[in-house]
Structure formats: structure tokens, C-alpha cells
Amino acid sequence: MTETDLSSPPAERPAAATPRLRVFVSSPSDLEHERALVRDLILALAREYRPYFDLSAVLWEEEALTAAQSFQAGLVRPAECEIVLVMLWTRLGTPLAEEPYGGMTGTEWEFVDAVEASARAGSPEVLVYRKQAPCLIDVNDAARTREAVEERQRLEAFFQRHFFNPDGSFKRAFRQFEDARALRELVEGQLRKLLNRRISAERRASVGAADWRGSPFRPEHAFALADEPVFTGRESEVRELVARLERLRARGRGLLLISGASGVGKSSLLHAGLLPRLLRPFLFAGVGGCRWCAPDLAGQRPLQALAAALCAPAVLGDALAGVGLDAAALARLLARDPELGAGQVGAALDRLQGVEGGEWRLALLCDPLDPLLAHVAARTVEAEACASALAALARSGRIWVIATLRDDALAGLTDRSELAALVDEDAWYPLAPIAPARIRQLVEIPARVAAIEHAEESAVGERGLVERLEADLAAVRHWPPLLELVLEALHQAAERCGARRLLVSDYHALGGLDGLLRARADRLWARLDEDARAALPVLCRALLVLESGEQRLPGARDGDLATLAAHPQAMALLESLVAARLVVIERDPEGGGAAVAPPPAFGLAAALRRLLAQSREEWLVRVGGWRETRPVDEDRPPAEPSLERAPWAEGRAVARLVHPALARCWPVLRDWAGMPEHARALRLRYRLSRQAWLWRRTDCNREYLLGETGHAALAAFVAAHEDELEALERDYLAHSRAHLLAQRRRNRWVRLTGLALFGLLLAASAAAYWAWDASRQATLNLQYSRLKEAAAAIDQGNTPEAVELAIGAAPYLPAAATDTLADAFTRNHLLALAESPGADPERPLPPAFSDDGAWLATLSHADGARLWRLRDGRFVAAGTLAPPGAALDALRVTGGGDAVEVFGIGADGVWRLPLETARAPDWRCAGAPGGVLALAPDGRGLALTRIVDAGVAVCMVDLAAPGRVRWQRVLHQAEIRSLDFSPDGALLVSASRDGRALLLDAASGVERARLPRAGALDRPANRARFDHAGERVAVASADERVRLYGLDGRLLSTLGALERDGRTLRVHESAVRDLVFAPDDRFLVAVDDAGQVVRWTLATGAAEVLGHHGLSVERVELAAGDEEALVLSASLDKTARLWGLQTGRELAVFSHDGPVSGARFSRDGARVLTYSARDGSARLWSVAPADGLSFRLEQDDHVWHLALAAPGDGAEVLMATAAFDGRVELWSHDRAHPEQAPRLVHRLQHAPEVRVRRVGFSPGARWLASAGFDGAARVWDLEGGGSCRAQVDPRCADPEAAGCGGVHQVLFAPDGRWLLTAAEVPEAPLRLWDPADCSALPLPSAFAHDGHGVVAAAVGASADGALLVASGDAAGTLRVMRREPGARWRRLCTLEAHRAAVTDLALAPDGSALASAGEDGRVALVELDGAGCVGPRRLDAGAGLVYAVGFAPDGEALVSAAQDGRAYLWTRAGAPLATLVGHRDRVYSAEFSPDGQWLLTAARDGELRLWRRPRRAQDAPLAAYLVLDAALGGVAYAHFSPDGNSLGAAYWENAAVWWRLWNESPAIDPAWVRVWGPERARLALIREAMRFQRGD
Asked: Phi and psi dihedrals of 860, rounded to 5?
């Protein structure tokens, strides 16, 4: 069929100017962001609606406002605009002038102006929006808050006045929004409605007075020329096509090719969009008119159809007839000579121009052009001639050949070279689908033109029709055909009801989009014959997909059209679906060139070639950009030019369902895909396609090729449907097969090579293991050596070095490192240290300590003089005494506590510090660098030496009187080596290198005596000191002697040699360096260059060497101790050592990293102060160990027992200690501050000089009871105060009586109501007492014994609430008594369990068993129930006497402590579980921790050992987890705290010790856990070690 027309479309109006449409945007300043959003939205709509309107936004900030008038007067009035958009939020705006605005705000006036104009003239249309989001106000700004409230009230009044009636009903409409997104949706939707309404009104008016007849929707066919009023949505495309035709006209070309997917609207765009524009006169400059024709090229004679269309009377019939050309002649001419034929057509147009005036054009519409480009079978000679004729006509420059072409036919252009040569970027226009934003436009404009209404909403809360369609179609790419289908169905439904209204209810009644698609598909399926239906499986496998096993309904897939073309029946079915708009055929631009991979090559040679090529390229690039600088090889043949494909030839044609819902809603597809064999095929096809595309998109990466499993899974599918595979899938399978073959070959070689290498691997693995083991052993040996170094450092008293070495070995040997740390801290004496930066050994600047050791003054070249105070175990800077560069050489500190004074001595004199700025010295008494200083006992006199021309002088200053120098005189001609004041400060003695010592009056400097009186010693005098009585002076000399002088200079004695058996033995074999008198002046201690520390008995002249240093001893000091005097010696061997004066025992070693230059005691003798000039450090030590893990609680006698309890909320733990001096001391430990020592709460007296054997707390710790050797028990009320005494053994009431055995046990009832005592009283060894007043309670008959005293007892409760009491006597007999609630005591059993005395008893936590320990070396285990006893079962480890026995908290194990230095662990059944080995002497105590995970043993060797409880029987002896030694002699008893975090231990050497075991805080540094493990990281020892390492 041929369409021809000469006229314009119906009722065509002359082209008019685009209407102007202005949108006035009004809002206060609190909506700046929303104003910008609305402006951008209007700009976007302006571009979209450009063919219809000149749309613009009017905003005051974009207007050219001048200073000649006010803001409001300079703006366009809202009444002059077509649309006014008002937005309000928290305020109404800024008030305007009273005249002419009536005092209204700018926004209010703009609104009023707009609505009044709208009421008068119907324009502008006013849209009001109110923001509902909350606004944040700073309530601290009262003025701003008040202003905001007032603004809000004005805004509410505005809305009440303009939008609501007095009765509360709405007067005007406004919309509310929450955020910018909601505002954009509201504004865009309403503006589109207003714009579409205007377009509809204009088009309806253009139709004429008569109404539009029929449906404005075209679901079955394209829009025609007459449908221009209802055709919309393609305005931008029409404008672009017109522009392209103009460009082609300027170039003398005429071919315009419009391609696109099926159903995209190519024909509608051509006939209803472009053609009406072309028919407008003078659309193009100089073109007065245009005629058109649309030949039908689908027949067998397309050239004849073309000629017939051109010769139609309404086209060029008359003009061509004038030259004798009819249709047949023109067809022959075009076939024979297309250029000549095109020229004749052009001439005919010229003749038409002469008749009608102006240039005339011909629009030749080839819609579609597909038949001329069909497959090879349709390529006839006439089709080729027709294509040549069209190309010639297009080249003529006077004829527009406008053709449409479906995407899949684009490839056919390559066979029409003449047409293809004309297709360039201007000539080819790929038509894209319409944007989903225009759905509303395609609904509203045609409907309004045809006077059809549509429902905005169907019910309250539901979306309107347009919104519903937008939701259903927005996600679909090709939605216009579906939209036309829906609208036509709704129109027919409305026609059937006699209404012209599209309703949502009708849309739902039709089943929505799914229902309409299903109905159309069913109608099509019903028309198909069986042959067409038989092709469905092929089409389903191409168009459907199931992605995974969980997906049950099929989805849509892109099917390759070239592959489907090999199946004619499937193509026929596909074309039917395309015609029904159920399937879309389009071009996939990324799918072209499926066979992109090189031929598969996976052999060894190919791999080597790839490797060599890659290496060569990398090397060439590395050597300096060879590719860019190498010359062109002239002999090399030029490369063939690459053939680039035209853009329209790229990609591939694919077919896809128009909507994915079709696969789910159409039963034909859904049921087919639901069959198991079909579903499996679809899943396999999905896997194949997905892997193939991944392989292609990763440049054919072999990692994505199929393996053996994948290839086998796809084998059946490929075999069954190989002809349906797409080119990419076939290529992928070919490469996968080749790769599998190469892998199989490689695997064979690998297996053969593997067998050969396996033996080598075994040998290499063995060698590697040996090397690893050797390396591990070497590493462990290195760490063991470091731990040995740490042990040596511990012996030297160098705790910092020992801790550093142990922590370094911890990652490899955590257990051994833990033991080393425990040893280091239990033997540690270091309290604090301070480093002096920039220490110079050639010019030492010694520090100065206060007498109590709490203050330290340091002097360094880098930092000057600084003062430090001891706080929490470290020296903390307390201030600067003098800046760097101050001329100070020495410091002295006087006083102590909070009142100290520091004096600086320099070459110019003595200053009282601090010295903030340079000033004259307070005492002009210069001291020589390195000179000798002496401070008087009262702290007032300071003597210092200086070198003058006449010799060495001594200057004496009075520190209490600034500026006063008592005296200054020359004393010696050689170096003065010491100065010493007498105890009363009245005398001063000096010792000099000249061999003399001078005795001076300290007040006047008058010489009192020379020592010796006549002449001088042969060797230098190194040291001179007074005794404590101030009556004698001892002089240490380099001649290896010590001489004692009276104050009158008389020689009293000489110490240096002993007479033995007629021989003289020299005690000092080198110079005596220093000496000191004992506090009682009975002894004198001297040290020499040989490292000896010698004690001289002054009365007899006897000498005893207390100890040795490795090098010369430079200083010695002496202080009174608790048991004996203490001797402190400082040596060049880097140590200072502490000795017992009487015993000669080495008590402690204090170490430095360099020779110890000085050492002295604090005033109270509890601390030692040392200094090393070489390492520049000053260190403060404790005479007693100070480890930070334990707190020594000193007692006056042996501590034999203790008890612990946690009263109240457990914030504190109480510990009571029992000592042999009759004292019971109560201590409190604060769990919130575990690093603080327990404080003494009470010092209680059981009885003077009476040994206390046991102590115990009542439940809740209200009472504390003690058992003494005096046959009495004492009870203290810890809450109310007071105490009472219970005389258990009447025989002990008389101190002179014999046979008093004492009380062995004091035990409280589980409810604390009574106290049980066990004693060696034959008549009543067990007795009950009221703890409130110590009154005796009636003794139940069940408690009677047969004349034997009780030495062990236990109290407990059974699981059923009955009370239990067990006793063991000196004969080895056990007795168990039981009392049920509300009943009397009864004897449960009496058992002969032991052959000797019972030493300890323990009841299981649930009262179901009793364990006893005896002197016969056995443990007896007795099972208990309400009826009696079962047993005993005797457990004998052959360990001698058993001291203690105890149950685990879960009752499943028990532990015994034995005389052989071991503890034994047993199961509840009596089977041996483990032996705890490590103690070196008898084990007195053994028990489980409260959580049952650990065991604690205490032994006579002085050690506490912690063991991890084993859960299975151990063949080897169990090693200790942690060893703690306080060096206080044997441990009589040890006990866990109730929380298990701490320990209490009773020591034989007059002390109890509180040990910190676990950290109280659950927070553990993860770094500690990585090094020490989760358990050891919780140890308080580890926390203390890390703190010590950091110097905290």
C-alpha cells in the first residue's frame, strides 16, 4: 500500500511563537535549600517541555535589582506570572512597608497578590507547600527562642486566615512535605499536571470545534499523521530529527535512518511527530513546501512500488508525466541508471517550484526499510536495484529519504554499500525508549484531547491511576506499548459503561498489567497452530532464566537473535510475539563480537611463548621507553590497516520479553519452566551464560573456564541443545574443552613428577623439621640463657634488668619467665630510681637525698638542678632548683617530710635553692669541684674543702644564718679525703692524703689535736670518723691499717693484723677505704681495696670478714636493725650489699649499671640510697623486700595460723592472724585498691605470752574466735565491740596445774548460732558455746567421747539441711554427729580410721563425705548419708605424716599435704589423680581455690606453690604453675581469700604476708594475652612486671 499526501495535517495552524510560562517561587529565607531544588527542577522541566513552552523560574535572588527601588518593587509581580509556587516552614518572612503593602511580609504579599489575581482573571495558578519537619532552636538563646515562637504564631495565624473557614473547614488547598525528596516529588507531579493540562487544552483546541472521536490510544498499530494531536512524549526527538535534516540539507545529503527496538515507536515518531513538522511551510529557510509519499517496500516488486508512489498525482505525477515518465518508465529508468532517474525526480520538483513558488522538497518515507535488508533468500535483483535507487535519490540533495529500521536489520546495511556509505553520525539516529518520567504525559495529554478523564485516586490511601501505572511500568525499559495496551483496555471498559473516565477500579478488575499481558498472550496462543507451538521450548530456553535452586518462578533473559535464526519455526513464533508486543527485539551494544578470544592454546610451548613475550615487553619498558624512541624499521612491511566497524554495525540483536512479569503470569511459560527437566535445563543455561560472559568481560581469563565438575554438569545440556548455543557460549565451551585437555595432560605429568618429587619431599621435610627443631631449640636455649642472665641479675639485686630479660623470654618460655619474675619480685628491694641525662663520669655531679629518702635532688649538665619527690613507688618531678649552666658542683638536702631545704655548692660559694636567676651566693665560701662536704648532725653547719695557693682549706658556713661563714683556714698541704662531724657537732675531723688527720673545733676552726701527734703516717689517710659516743676517732689508712685515737691525739690501738700461733696475719691486704662504728661502739667495720668487709671487735681486737665484693669497696655505712645492726657497703663492682653485723649474713644486693659511687641509709634505717656516677642514676631501695605483689605484716612472734573472710558486700577482705605471743591481729584489705597494703584494724590479745593455735570467723564475719594453748577460747564481737573468754579446759585455769593441753579448734556453726571447741579434755573434748557471751550450751549426749581428747574437728551441712559435726581424736577414732532440722543431735557413726592421732578433718561441701588425715600417713575417706557411714576407704601414698586434707568445691576431688614434701590429689572414689612435686620440705597446708580450678600448698621450705587442677589422672608429677617465696622461713599455713584473687600466709619468722595473686580488674591488655596466654595475663605478677618495666 502506498500513502501519499500533499496537504498539511488536519486543522494545521501556522507555526506560532512558543508560549511563555513563568513560575514565580516565593518563600522566606528559612527554605534556601528548597528554593534551589525547585529552581533546578524547573530548569529540567523547561528542557523537556521546550517544544511547548518557554518555561522559566522567577526568583528574587536571580533578578537584577537596583538601588532605585525596594526589593519587592523591583520584582516581577506574582500576578503577572502564570504559576506561583509558595513554600513555608517556620516563619512568614520580613515585614514590608505599610504603603502599599499594608505591613505584610514579602511572602504573604506575594501570596495575596497571586490569589487575588487568580480570583479576578483565573491566572496565575497558585501552589502552596508547607514543610512539617522539626526545626532546631538553641534554647540557651532566649531572644532567638522568643523570636522563633512569635514567628510560628504569625505563620499559624496566616494559615488560619487564608486556608481555613471559621468552622475549621478548608478554604484553600495546600500540600505538606517532610523533606527535600518529598517536596521534589510533589512539585514535579503537580507542575507536570499543570503543563500537561495546558498542552492538552491547546491540542484540543487545534482539533477544531468537533470533539475527538474514538480512542486516542494505539495499542495495535502506530500513530498516523492525523493522530498528531494525541501523539506526545517525543518532542525532543522530533526537534533533533528536524535539526539533522537541516544539517543533511546543508551537506547535500538526504538519507535519514531511524533505528530502534521493535515497538519503540519509530513509525509513530515518523508519521505523527516528524511528518507534521515537515509539512509546515517554511519550516526550513527557503523551503516553501514539502510533498511526501510512503511506498510499500515489503512486496516482491519494491522498485515498482517506489516508482508508483513517486508518480502518484498528489506527489509528482503531473510533473513526471510532462517528461513522459509514468510509473513503469520511471521504474525502468531507476533500475537502469539510478542517478539519471533521481535527476528526473529532482527536475520534477523544480517544475513544481516554478508553479507554486519557493523551494519544494520531497519526503520519501521508507517505513520500514527492513524488507530491503532481509536475509539472503530475500535479496532479489529488484531489491538491490531499489536500494540503489533510494541511495541515488538521497544523494540528489532535493529528496529526503527517511527510513525506519528495526535494530536486528541494521547488520543488513553492510550488504547495501551505497546506502551504507550515506549513513554517518547525522544520517543515523538510534531511537531510545521514552523516559519513565513521561508516563504521566502520555496518559494525560491524549486523554484530555479526547475529553477523557482519569481518576486521580481510587480510594483513601490508594494511589491514583497515573501513580499506579508509574509504579508498574517505571522499571520496564520498553513501556509505551504496554501503556497503550492498558489505556486502550481502560478506554474500552469506560465505553462499555457509557462513561469517558479511566478508573483504577477497572484497572484492578482487568488484573492490572499482569492480567492484560496474560490475556493478550492467551489470545495470541489460541491463534497459533500446533507447528508454531512446537517451537516454544527453543524460545523458552532462549528467553527464560532460572538463576538458582531457590528461585521457583522464571525470569527474563536476552536471547541471541542470530542463534534463533537457525530455527525457522522458533523465529516464526518469535515474530508473532513481537507483533503482539509481547517480545521486544533490540540491539545490545555490548554484545557484539562474541568470538573475541584467540584460538585456544594451552600447551607448554604456548605458555613459554606467552612468558617470553611478557618478559620482553616488561624489559623494553624498563630500559627507558623503547617503544616511544625506537626508529621505524623501513624494511619492515607496513601493517594492514584495521577495518573499523561503523557504530550502527556494532552490537548484536537480542530478543527479550517486554516485561519480566510475562514469564510469571502467562501459564504457558510458567508451566513449561516449572517442569523439573526444563527447570534444570534453564539453570544449567544460566550457569553457562553467566560464566561465558564473565570470561569474556575479564579478557578471557582462564580462571573462569569450566573445570571437570562444571563441564560434566553441562555435558548433557550441551549435547541435547548444541544448536541453540550462542556464539559466545560455543566459543567458551571450546576454550573450556581445550583447557581441560591441557589440564589432563598436565595432571598426568604432574602425577609422574609428583611421584619422583615425593621422595625428595619426604627428605626435604625431614631436613626442614630437623632444621626447624634445631632453630627452635636454639631459640629456646637463647631464651634459657637470658633467663639465667635474669637469675644472675636477681642475685646482683638488679631487678630492672631481670624483669626486662624475663619479659623478653616470655613469648617463648612463659612458664619459666613467670617463675623468674616471681623470684625477681619476691627478692626485689628497689623502690624507685631517677636517671640523670648527660652524666659525665669525668666530672660527676652526685645527687643528694633527704634523710628519710623521700626527696631527691639531682644535678646534671643538661637539665640543671631538679628536685624529685617519692610518690607511689616512683620519683616525680617536684620543681627546678637551678637552670642548666648554673655554676653548681654539689647539692645537699636537709630536713625531711614536707619541710626540706636544698643547698647548692659551687666554685663561687653556697646558694640556698631554688636559684631562678643568676645572683650572688648566699655564703661566699667556695667549694672545689669534686671536693669533700660534711653536714653537721643538726643540719646547720656545712664544711667544704677548697684548693688555695697555700694548700687545701676548709670553709665552715652556718646554714641557719645566710651569709655567715664561721671560719675558713688552710688545714693540709695535700688533698683532703674526708670530713666528719662528731655526734654533737662540736668537733670536726679531717683526713688527708698527706697522712694526717686533724681534730678541729667546729665553731672556731681551732686545731684541737693532730693524729698522729708527731709527724705523719707513711701513707695517705683515707677516712676519719668519730664513734657514736664522740670519744674516739678511727682513721683508715692506705697502709692497710685502722688506728684509733683519743680526742687528745693519743693512739689507742691499731687494727690491721692478728697474732695467731706466733704468726702475724694481715687482715687487710690493701688500702682501707672507709670505716664505721657500730651503734653501741663495740664493733668497727672497715672496707678495703681488696673488696673485703671486715668486722673488728674493739674490745679484743678480733676480726671477722663479713663478706667480699669483686672490686674495691669505696663506702661503708651502718644502721640499727630490728634484730641486728645492718652494714651497707658500696663497691666498684657495681653493687652495694647489705650484711648482718652479728651474723655476717648477706641480706640484700643493690645493683647499678656502673660502679656504685655512694651509698647511705635513710634516717630510720629502713631505706638505702645509692648513686652511680658512671650510669648517672640514683636509686632508692628498701631494706626489707618490696615487690609490689606481697605485703609483709610484721609480728612480734611466730605466726601459726590465719583466717580470711569477706563481710557485707565483699568490698573488703578481713584477715586474722594467730601469733605465738598471744596476739590476734585483724587486717583489712580494700579490693578496690589491691596495690595498697592491708591496714591494721585491731590488735587483739588472746592472753599475754600464750600461743594462739587457731583463729576463725563466723559466717558474715560478725565474730572472730581464737584457740590458745591456755585451754581457753576467746570471741570478739567485730560489729558491736567487746569480747568474752570461754575456759574450755578447766585444768588450765590454774597456771601451776599440769596436763593443760590447750584448745585445738574453734569452729562456728553454719548459721553462726554456736561455737564449737575441740580440746584435749578427756571428759568433754567437744563443747558448744554461745558466741555472744561465751556461755556454755548444753552438751548433747551424742558429743560424748571415751576419754580421748579431740585434736581435729569439722563442721558442715548436708544437702538436705542437716548439721554435721565430725571429730578425730588422738587415738585415730572418727566420730560423726548429725542433727536434722527440728531434731536432736545423734551419733551417725564411730570409726577406727587411723592407727595414730588424727591431724585434720574435712567435710565435703554437700556433706556427703568426710576425709581425715592422720599421723599414720594415711587419708581416710568416709561416705555419709542420713542413715550412717560407709567406709572408711584408706588412701595411703606412703608419704609419712599427713598434715592437712581438703575437698574441692565441687566435691569431686580431695588433696592431702604430707611430710615427704609432696601433696597428693585424689578422686572422690579414692583413685590417685596427681602428685604435686616441688617443695623441698614438709608440706603443712594444701587446699583448693574457691572456684576449684587451682590448688595452693604451703611448706616448711618457705614456698607457696600454685598448681592448676588436673581433670584426668597424671602419670608424671605435676609441676607448679607459680612459686612464691617471701624469704621468711617456713610457712605454717596459707589460705585463699574468698574471691580467690589473693592469698594469706603465716610465716615462722614473725610475719604474715598478704599475696596478690590475680588482678581484681577483669580488663586485661590484649597484648599481654598474646604473650603470656589468657591465664597468666591475669596474674597480678604480670601486671606488676609490666608496670615495673614502664617505670610507673
From this structure: -140, 155
Strand ranges inside 567-713, DSSP E: 583-588, 652-657
Bridge partners for 1010 per DSSP: 998
State yes or no: pLDDT of 551 exceeds 70.
no
Q: What is the largest CA-CA distance in the chain?
A: 170
Which of 1496, 834, 940, 738 minimizes the C-alpha distance to 1177? 834
Strand order in the sheet with 951-958: 933-935, 941-948, 951-958, 965-972
The two domains 20-206 and 234-433 share their CATH topology (first three levels equal): yes
674-723 pLDDT, tens digit per residue, is: 898 998 988 888 888 888 888 888 888 888 888 888 888 888 888 888 88
- Residue 921 phi/psi, 5-degree rounding, is -65, 150
Integer Cα distance of 1553 and 826 in angstroms? 11
Q: 234-433: which CATH number, 3.40.50.300, 1.10.10.10, 3.30.70.360, 3.40.50.720? A: 3.40.50.300
Query: Averaging pLDDT over each range in 101-115, 1163-1177, 1442-1456, which range is the top one?
Result: 1442-1456
Distance of CA 859 to the CA centre of its chain: 46
pTM comes to 0.55
User: H/E/C letters for each residue in 64-75?
Assistant: CCCCCCCHHHHC
Amino acid at 322: G
pLDDT (mean) for 1533-1551: 94
Q: What is the CB-side half-sphere exposure of residue 1141 using CA atoms within 13 A?
A: 26
State how far the Cα of 645 lies from the Cα of 272, in Å rounded to an integer: 33
Q: Long-range contacts made by residues 368-371, C-beta under 8 angstroms, separation at least 24?
A: 368/266, 368/267, 368/297, 368/298, 368/403, 368/404, 368/405, 368/406, 368/409, 369/257, 369/297, 369/403, 369/404, 369/405, 369/409, 370/405, 370/406, 370/409, 370/412, 371/297, 371/298, 371/302
In residues, how long is the chain? 1592
Give the number of other Cβ atoms within 10 Å of residue 628's Cβ. Answer: 7
Q: How far are the Cα atoms of 626, 630, 982 from residue 622, in angstroms, in the given order? A: 8, 14, 88
Phi then psi for residue 1198, to 5 deg, are -60, 140
- The fold for domain 923-1055 equals Methylamine Dehydrogenase; Chain H (2.130.10)
| 3-class secondary-structure state, position 1585 | helix
State yes or no: cis peptide before 368, omega within 30 of 0.
Answer: yes
Contacts of 641 (CB under 8 A, 6+ apart): none
CB 250 within 8 A of CB 203: no
In percent, how much of the chain has pLDDT > 70? 92
Residue 1376 in contact with residue 1364, Cβ under 8 Å? yes
pLDDT in tens, 834-858: 877 656 666 677 888 888 888 889 8
Are 476 and 659 contacting, i.e. CB atoms less than 8 angstroms apart? yes
Strands 1063-1066 and 359-366: unpaired
Provide Rg for the chain, Cα atoms. Answer: 57
- The domain ranges of the chain are 20-206, 234-433, 923-1055
Kind and range of the H or E run holding 696: helix 676-697
CA pair distance 17, 817, nearest whole angstrom: 96
Pick the CATH number of 20-206 from 1.10.3470, 3.40.50, 2.60.40, 1.10.287: 3.40.50
Burial of 1470-1506, coded b for 16+ CB within 10 Å and e otherwise, reads beebbbbebbeebbbbbbbbeebebbbbbbbbbbbbb
For residues 1303 and 1267, the answer to whether their CB atoms sit within 8 Å is yes
CB 1381 within 8 A of CB 1365: no
**What are the CA-CA distances from residue 386 to residues 377, 389, 958, 1188, 1578 (Å)?**
16, 5, 133, 108, 96
CA distance 15 to 1264: 115
**Residue 708 CA to its chain's centroid (Å):** 42
Q: How far apart are CA 937 and CA 1028, in angstroms?
A: 12
